[in-house]
Design goal:
The protein is α/β, with parallel strands linked by helices and about 500 residues long. The protein folds into two domains: about 15-185, Cytidine Deaminase, domain 2 (3-Layer(aba) Sandwich); about 200-480, 3-Layer(aba) Sandwich (Rossmann fold). Helices cover about 30% and strands about 25% of the residues. The protein has helices at about 1-20, 30-40, 90-105, 125-140, 200-215, 225-235, 260-265, 270-280, 300, 315-330, 375-385, 385-390, 410-430; strands at about 20-30, 50-60, 60-70, 80, 85-90, 105-110, 145-150, 155-160, 165, 170-175, 180, 215-220, 240-245, 285-290, 290, 310, 335-345, 350-360, 440-445, 450-455, 490-495. The protein has a nine-stranded mixed sheet with strand order 9-8-7-6-2-3-1-10-11. An eight-stranded mixed sheet has the order 14-13-12-16-17-18-19-20, with helices on both faces. It has a two-stranded antiparallel sheet with strand order 4-5. β4 (about 80) and β5 (about 85-90) form a beta hairpin. The relative contact order is 0.12.
Length: about 500
């Protein structure tokens, strides 16, 4: 048993080491399908596209976030080359390089080869990169410049970053089924097979387990709902987690927090420290990095930028706002869970008991919290007035009540939490049906009714719309809606135990 745990720990650490300084391109499913349709129309010829990308740099490496796919018109923008077969016209390149320079974005030139699961650049491709990209990088003010080549089920990339070419580790297609594309099958990660996840292998195979092991998942809020999510995700075999919460275990919240002890109340143990303890018990090889602080601070929110998925179980409007922006700005699937018990203010009678859940995907009509009216500016303003008002906010956009008077039971979070984790699992292992609709769900427990709620979208939403002023896929170029911490203060990590 100890040998198996040690092996899993070594594998997780090796995976984290390999992830550092990696280069990943993330693209929304709708953009990927449009690009693929243009590149492979059935004529067995080469075609071209330019991808305009935001940039995210972190300890895990560089992510290029596709904000816009620009189709190159045949014989106008994508023309015969004097040195090779085809190339982008000088006018087309200059136009979009200037656009990138003006908006602080990266530039990727895309073409296709006629291959399927294996693809690589030709010698002519490599020579053109060496000739053109150093000067082009100067034109776009030092932002990454590079090229991708597509096969029908593969992708390879070379990007000039800080004066050096770097190979793309993979391209991630973000949609209801998250898809990773590699230059050839041998580069796909291999999962562990020590018997611990035998029953999971039977559901989604060794490859599915390898995908889970390579993920980094963030949690905002580690109360009743967040603590359940933390344990379930850890037991699935996810490789890295980042739980964020500024609160401690208290007598009145301990019954709702998975893994908390009576002694945790006495020692005022942070909720995130309990989350780490539970995660390690569930999965000894997990890399859990708890943050005992509030996500509304810029340096804390920045730790979530390179997550692969984020769960929100927090109870403030500010945390919703930050969550929503990180999801869209960095193209990360989000999962928002909560519970609500409505009480008549005069009689004290319970009028409604509900569990609510929504998937928030980083695209228009993907469940943006701003579009759904769940980040009201007046509520945000009131929330900053005092700590009492901040704590009094309830879940998922309903009217606030006094926190001390609001009923809450751990089981209320199970319905929404289980659906969220199952959706996460189906999404990342590719088991979702292709026609699935990721609508919001509301369970009315007193009537045993389940309601499905469609998403609202605004054409000029500053978060999700993809218009010139929106934050969609802008990465590090646009600041998150966070507080800036005084220089002398630093976020607190949970104590090591």
């Amino acid at each position: 048993m100890e040998q198996a745990a040690r092996y899993r720990l070594d594998q997780a650490q090796e995976g984290a080491r390999m992830a550092q300084n990696s280069l990943i391109v993330r693209i929304l499913e709708a953009d990927y399908r449009r690009v693929l349709q243009h590149l492979f129309p059935g004529d067995n010829d080469e075609h071209g596209t330019i991808l305009i990308c935001g940039v995210c740099r972190s300890d895990r490496g560089t992510r290029l976030l596709v904000r816009r796919a620009v189709i190159a018109a045949e014989a106008v923008d994508f023309v015969e080359s004097r040195r090779g077969y085809r190339e982008f016209s000088a006018r087309f390149v200059a136009k979009w390089a200037t656009y990138c320079a003006r908006h602080g974005l990266a530039y990727l030139a895309v073409h296709n080869h006629g291959s399927d699961e294996r693809v690589d650049f030709s010698r002519n491709d490599l020579e053109s990169h060496a000739r053109a990209y150093p000067s082009l990088q100067g034109l776009i003010k030092g932002k990454p410049v590079g090229a991708l080549v597509f096969g029908r089920r593969s992708a390879a990339g070379r990007v000039l970053i800080d004066g050096k070419f770097q190979e793309m580790a993979k391209m991630t297609v973000v949609g209801s089924r998250v898809l990773d594309l590699y230059s050839h099958p041998a580069k796909r990660p291999k999962g562990l097979d020590d018997g611990m996840y035998d029953r999971q292998f039977r559901l989604f195979g060794n490859a599915g387990q390898a995908i889970l092991q390579g993920l980094k998942v963030g949690f905002i809020g580690l109360g009743g709902g967040g603590s359940l999510l933390n344990e379930w995700i850890s037991r699935l075999g996810v490789g890295q987690t980042v739980p964020v919460d500024p609160d401690i275990i208290k007598k009145h919240n301990r019954p709702r927090i998975v893994g908390s002890l009576i002694s945790d109340v006495r020692t005022k143990r942070p909720k995130v420290e309990v989350a780490k303890r539970v995660a390690k018990q569930a999965n000894p090889g997990i890399n859990c990095e708890p943050i005992f602080d509030d996500v509304v601070f810029e340096d804390v929110a920045a730790r979530l930028r390179d997550c692969d998925a984020i769960f929100l179980a927090g109870d403030t409007y500010a945390s919703r706002q930050v969550f929503n922006r990180v999801v869209h700005q960095y193209l990360i699937p989000g999962f928002h869970v909560g519970a609500r018990v409505a009480v008549d203010e005069e009689t004290g009678a319970v009028t409604s008991v509900r569990s609510e859940y929504r998937v928030v995907m980083p695209n228009a009509k993907g469940g943006c919290l701003d579009c759904c009216g769940l980040v009201p500016q007046e509520k945000l303003r009131l929330e900053t007035l005092s700590d009492d008002q901040k704590r009094a906010q309830d879940y998922l956009g309903v009217e606030a009540l006094d926190e001390l008077a609001e009923p809450s039971v751990i089981t209320l979070n199970v319905l929404s939490g289980a659906q969220a984790v199952n959706d996460f699992l189906m999404m990342f292992t590719g088991l979702f049906d292709g026609s699935v609709k990721l609508y919001s769900q509301r369970h009315e427990l007193t009537t045993r009714r389940l309601y499905t709620v469609g998403h609202i979208s605004r054409s000029k939403c500053p978060v999700c719309s993809g218009t010139e002023v929106s934050a969609l896929a802008m990465g590090d170029e646009v600041r998150l809606p966070c507080k800036i911490r005084p220089i002398q203060e630093r976020p607190l990590r949970a104590r090591a135990r």
